[in-house]
Amino acid sequence: ERHILADIFTLSEHRGSIQGKTVTWIGDSNNVCNTWLQAAEVLDFNVHVSTPPGYEVEIERANLYGTDHFESFADPMEAARDADLVTTDVWTSMGFEAENEERRKDFADWQVDADMMRVAKADALFMHCLPAHRGEEVSAEVIDGSQSVVWDEAENRLHTQKALMEYLLLGKVL
Fold first, then answer.
1. In angstroms, rounded to a whole number, what is the distance separating the alpha carbons of residues 75 and 113?
2. Which value, in Å, is the radius of gyration of the alpha carbons in the chain?
3. What is the DSSP letter of 10?
4. What tens digit of pLDDT does each residue of 121-151 get?
């Protein structure tokens, strides 16, 4: 997932190496969440995941990526506790639009809000791969707040995708 390259680059710009840090994923265990789990194994950081019941990370998938860097939490506030980064995505991904109303009910307690950011580290960052739905997966106060780096993250997507294309086409980094 190319988004994670930009997210890791953005975190490193703001807070240094991701190694040993804690990333908290709040919401659906979608493709972005799964890519965080893969990246954690490769880059040696921790991922805390909190999803509503019925939307958890599949056990087989978690075992595939390894469980040394992954912990699941029923309570999103506990997942966010002492995190270096709190991140989320839309509650209804493409292809699941028919489930939108049900998902809005199921995910209501999984909104990243100011209370959740307060239990993370004082200098924790907030990321979202955009577009976001203010008032659903993230409060306006958080996405527009001082801990949010969503615009840096979006800009860095361009740069990391160019670097990835260069590497794939040339087989080297200049």
1. 14
2. 16
3. H
4. 999 999 999 999 999 999 999 999 999 999 9
